[in-house]
Amino acid sequence: MGKTRDHLGRPVVAVTGMGVVSSLGQGVDDNWAALTAGKSGIHRITRFPTDHMRTTIAGTVDFLFPDEVRSPVLSERLARLAAEEAVSESGIGAPGDFPGMLFMAVPPVEIEWPARRDFFAGTDGATGDAYDRMIQSVLQLNDPDTYEFALYGCVADRIADHFGTRGAPIGLSTACASGASAIQLGVEAIRRGDTEAALVIGTDGSVRIEGLVRFSLLSALSTSNDDPEKASRPFSKDRDGFVMAEGAGALVLEDYDAARARGAKILGIVRGIAEKADDFHRTRSTPDGKPVIAAIRQALEDGGAAIEDVDYVNAHGTGTPENDKMEAMSLEAVFGERMKSLPISSNKSMIGHTLTAAGAIEAVFSLKTILSGVVPPTINYETPDPSIPLDVVPNVARNVPVSMVLSNSFGFGGQNACLLIAAEPA
């Protein structure tokens, strides 16, 4: 029996397990039911005071973690829940003995202000450089967890220990493209023959005061606080920014032949990957959209697909005025007249923007779209934008046969990543 190869002679990369946690719920089934029903997970922030804040809403996972915890700790907890679901569904290996590599997207890890204040109070007038003072204060406070997270960014290390993955755990952070970037690293490792399996995770638990302030200073966040569920309005004319959110998505990737040999159920194929950098501005995209256009075309080329093969676009669709217009313009440049009838929708209208987790969560939702033949809607679409004349699947899910999805992820700092996700080959 011959080996299964793609159009470039590379191993085909299959998905055999997936898991997700978002503001809509825990688990793929609960999330998918809420997503296709057009429900919103956005609500008022209750974990910390928001007095005098311009934005007081977010997509937090309060139903699981109602109390405020440090961002790295919450990111690890969310990642573990999503990965446990994915590994369990895949049926690969024994518990705690994953037979492959770990690629993980995590938010930038730093010491948050409450911990900094504690550290400063614990220095007792210590002299020396900042590094020495931090070590002394940690020892006095007896808080090794905070020290470890801050110094090493060890979320991936802890996840690797828990699941027993092989080799050095890879932790990466490429802004809002991180989840898709992690998937690409997993795909590339399998294609190269470095591993037959990869556990890929995107996680983010960084909804905290500092994050809200920073994004507010960039004028990136929605300030539609009066009606939280209607605040995220991708592609609408009255969109006013994105809504921060928490969550995690996980995929088990395998060499297609190895997965079939062990009798695994194939959920789909990661057929094409692409990433292009944009050095125009820290937060703004090149006005002509060239890097995004190039990323979309590269994903199609990498997957050996034509524009006619794509049945649905899972948009980045943040709800910021500039991003949505740029994404629409770029898609029209690639797909031409086809974009007038090609469904495109944004999951962020319901779950908010999960930042480093977004690409992985949306890959899970893209697979569910293929498996169910249901395209999730873009909710809160009440005021169409004449400059974006696209079929955004407004407000209500749609039954559409889908065999290939283009999933876009674009991040601050010029990170543009695209995934081409497809049904199992016949």
Automatic annotation (TrEMBL):
Specify the Ketosynthase family 3 (KS3) domain's residue ranges: 10-423
Family according to the record: Belongs to the thiolase-like superfamily. Beta-ketoacyl-ACP synthases family.
Q: Which pathway does it operate in?
A: Lipid metabolism; fatty acid biosynthesis
Name of the featured protein: 3-oxoacyl-[acyl-carrier-protein] synthase II
Molecular function terms from GO:
3-oxoacyl-[acyl-carrier-protein] synthase activity
Q: Which InterPro entries does this entry report, sorted A to Z?
A: Beta-ketoacyl_synthase, Ketoacyl_synth_C, Ketoacyl_synth_N, PKS_Beta-ketoAc_synthase_dom, Thiolase-like
What Pfam families does UniProt report for this protein, alphabetically? ketoacyl-synt, Ketoacyl-synt_C
Instruction: Provide the E.C. number(s) assigned to this enzyme.
Output: 2.3.1.179
Is Nucleotide-binding tagged as a keyword?
Answer: no
Give the species.
Kaistia geumhonensis
SUPFAM superfamilies reported for this sequence: Thiolase-like
Superkingdom of source: Bacteria
Keyword entries, A-Z: Acyltransferase, Transferase
